[in-house]
Amino acid sequence: MHRIIKLYLGLLLLFVLSGCWSSKTIQHMDYATAIGLDYKDGFYITYIQVLSFSQVAKTETMEIGKSIPVWVGKGQGKTVSEALSSLYRTSQLRVYWGHVRAIVFSDAFARNKQALQQAYDSINRYREIRYNILVYGTKEPLPKILTQQSILNLSPLDTILDSPQDSYEQQSEIAPQYAFRVISEINEPMRATYLPTLATTDESWTENEKKKSMFLNDGAYIMQNKEFKGWFSLDDLIGSKWMEKRTKRFLINVPAGDNPHIAISLNNPRYRIKPYIDKNEVKFNIDVRIKGNVEEMTENYSISKLEAEAAAVVRSQILHTYRKGLPNQTDILNLLGVFYRNQPREWQRLNKMNKIVLKEDTLNKISVKITLIHTGKYKARI
User: Would the pLDDT of 139 be above 80?
Assistant: First the structure.
């Protein structure tokens, strides 16, 4: 009798268990991989890039070189959340946000403080979206950015929009920016926060003599003390890479100018910012140390002369970038942030006196030490 009762109880439990009734098969979901945010005429306009994972997954039957279709949805609303939610009306399938890898702000959106605050709150509040997503700005139409293909017609996930690290390690110009760094930096007083900007060009690559459009970083938006400071080109920011610990490699010409004789790759810079007070004004000395390799040399130079001339090039680039921020008091090199963290009492005192101002002589001295490790198969003179 007891066995029969146990059997009935077991069957009853099987019926009341919920199981996986609410689960979805992976092919029956829209996987958002990138978000574009725009602002126009009082409305937030959102775009989402959707890819079919069956076409971007690396399998044995994957056909390399076959163009992968990119779907882009567009929504609109009075808030960022409303604009994103409006996409549900026409998506046909459930939209899954856990695979978002990048967010791109339009020029109008990046310049709008209220829009940025709304995006910050809406996106970071939503539980499916992670903190390690990449953040960009752009001056180009967002649909164009979100439908950009990769080289060899690989997945859009294999572009610098979603995977910038490989390119950055070979040519370190502007470091990739992640959402968690933006959240940290934008709330730190005196800290300059970079938003790398994406553009496209069809002047570099061709397929069967047909021009192919590709991504490139053309500069960055900079925000400081939660205020938009402006857009700066790659040339404006040419010295910032030497004040970035994530810089891996960058090639410089020596001497700088129209007739260089040597190409040197410089790797893994290390720097130190030293603030000090002079007559109730803050001043800075910068010490930079970099190792490098000779990549090309058409005239024979001694090692000591190579190192000295390479150091002069780096020094001039740092000074050039510092001066680009002076007209609107943009601390591109993050000098004041170091002063704020290291000497908070002095910062408070000078701030009350309105003495924290960037001037031509605020950056007092730039010391650069270049050490050449390799000169290639050919040897330079000692």
Answer: yes
CB neighbours (10 Å) of residue 170?
11
Distances (CA, A) of 94 to 70, 98, 129, 360: 17, 12, 15, 56
CA dihedral (272, 170, 147, 133) in degrees, to 10, reads -40
Q: For residue 258, how many other CB atoms are within 10 A of its CB?
A: 6
Which residues lie across from 290 on neighbouring strands?
Answer: 370
Residue in 166, 153, 170 with CA at minimum distance from that of residue 214:
153
The CB density around residue 68, as the number of other CB atoms within 10 Å, is 17
Domain borders along the chain are: 27-234, 235-382
Q: So what's the pLDDT on residue 149?
A: 87
Long-range contact list for 179-184, CB < 8 A, 24+ apart? Answer: 179/103, 179/123, 179/124, 179/130, 179/131, 179/132, 179/133, 179/134, 179/135, 180/131, 180/132, 182/135, 183/120, 183/124, 183/131
Side-chain half-sphere exposure of 206, counting CA atoms within 13 A: 5
- The model's confidence at residue 368, banded by pLDDT at 50, 70 and 90, is very high
pLDDT in tens, 251-287: 999 988 778 889 999 999 999 999 999 999 999 999 9
221-239: burial string, b at 16+ Cβ within 10 Å, e else = bbbbeeeebbbbebebbbb
pTM of the model: 0.87
Contact call for residues 362 and 282 (beta carbons, < 8 A): yes
The domain defined by 235-382 carries CATH number 3.90.25.10: no
Q: How many CA atoms lie within 13 A of 178 on its CB side?
A: 13
What is the spatial distance between Cα 65 and Cα 281, in angstroms, rounded to a whole number? 60
The single-letter code of the amino acid at 317 is: Q
Q: Is 313 left (phi over 0), alpha (psi -120 to 50) or beta?
A: alpha
Contact 301/262 with Cβ under 8 angstroms?
yes
Dist CA 347 CA 190 (whole Å): 11
For residue 59, what pLDDT is reported? 46
